[in-house]
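Justification of computing resources. Each target in the renewal requires a structure prediction run like the one illustrated here; the chain below, 536 residues long, is used simply to show the kind of job we budget for.
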Amino acid sequence: MTNREAMLEKIEALDAEHAKAVAGGGERSVARHHGRGKLMPRERIELLVDEGSAFLELSPLAGWGSDFTVGASVVTGIGVIEGVECMITANDPSVKGGASNPWTVKKIFRAAQIAQENGLPSVALVESGGADLPTQKEIFIPGGKLFRDITRASARKEPTVALVFGNSTAGGAYVPGMSDYTVMVKEQAKVFLGGPPLVKMATGEESDDESLGGAEMHARTSGLADYLAEDERDAIRIGRRIVARLNWRKARTSPGLETGLRPSSTNEGAAYAEPDADPDGLLDLIPTDLKEPFDPREVIARLCDGVSDTNGQVFDEFKPLYGTSLVTGWARLHGHPIGILANAQGVLFSEEAQKATQFVQLANQTDTPLLFLHNTTGYMVGKDYEQGGIIKHGAMMINAISNSTVPHLTVIMGASYGAGNYGMNGRAFDPRFLFTWPSAKSAVMGPAQLAGVLEIVAQQSAESKGQEFDAEGFRGIKELVEAQVEEQSLPYFLSGMLYDDGVIDPRDTRTVLGICLSVIDNQAYSGTDRFGVFRP
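Resulting structure tokens:
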């Protein structure tokens, strides 16, 4: 099987997993909601965002591999509304009435983190029955952070808008209650801390949905609703007008876009040239066996702006003859300047770590965002390398990346094992955005290596006790461990746990990164000259 065939097979499987999230609660549930004249979350989002603009969906596989529906009963992502990039969240009422399960909470937390880091307004499309009661112990305590995040966003002057399409019950009532702007749909929105059954049990009072929490009551009596919409489309229209009146301005303008690079002949009006190498060729680059190296320069040539109409270069490589298993250099992507660190041969040696440290410092000196392209098995091990200082040199690299204050973007293309995941700015180091390709794998080490290490440890343990090691008997344990690690290192598993922001088709990487770089410019940032102590 060729590299392309293998990647296309993985992409086909990825599409099938994404389809599960889009299906929500299933055909019957979707049909029931449509029969009530209601739209599904992605249909609402499509009407909300500017016509023809892209919507970057985030964490679509949240909850994959768990007992909950893939997607975690909520859609999150970044969309352009009246020219303003906004964080959008939309409950999926076809999945248990939009009730929040533990993965829903984690997914919304991640969306709020992205909104905060990038200074985005937030628009919530609300229709939720509150917490999934059987799992309330995992939701109730941490869930309060959701409401804290809304109020803190408002305090940072990052507007919050709630469009309420249906039930917004119990804790869910605080989403419209704490938002800066609230729109409710007439005869559909129901917002109350406790519904009629709970009120009856708690106080003995008889009440109905409309008088207790209906849209008209909140618009005319309680004042919770700032706008009363006639129907869902009217609510979306009002939401767009609210965003249009925010007087929103980005904090930064990319130097490349500000001065205006000449557009390519095939991309009239753009401030950049499309890649000189066809992005479709990315499907041919990743080997089926991740132990085989590939040249990341070929990836860079297909991601970054071309030179068809400029006198520059696609990629100005930094220190090309030193530390050659890590490629570093400068480029532009959709007109935005970036610094790139990309693994070439998989293993990181002392030279690569020192090279990366200097490069990260240079990026901070010039306020340049960094893009990390992973394909690493980690830092080199062995007597000579330990004596040569691989630990302190790896620590220097991690020190520089940890304390860097320019925005970081990460794409895991292939392997991302061990401390190499840390050194190349994995999830634990809070990149602004992190995406994986279907070919990606990430774990403490490769499955075969991990199982082999366990076998060696078991053998040494038996010998230390004067016992004979049963290699044949251990074989089954070894195979089980290897299979388990293989499963847990796959992109769906990691994405399901929200260790990335989505698994993407490699051909979409340039577009996804272009959106992310544009989003980053909503918030002011600058590089640092303060790092931890670099051990000599």
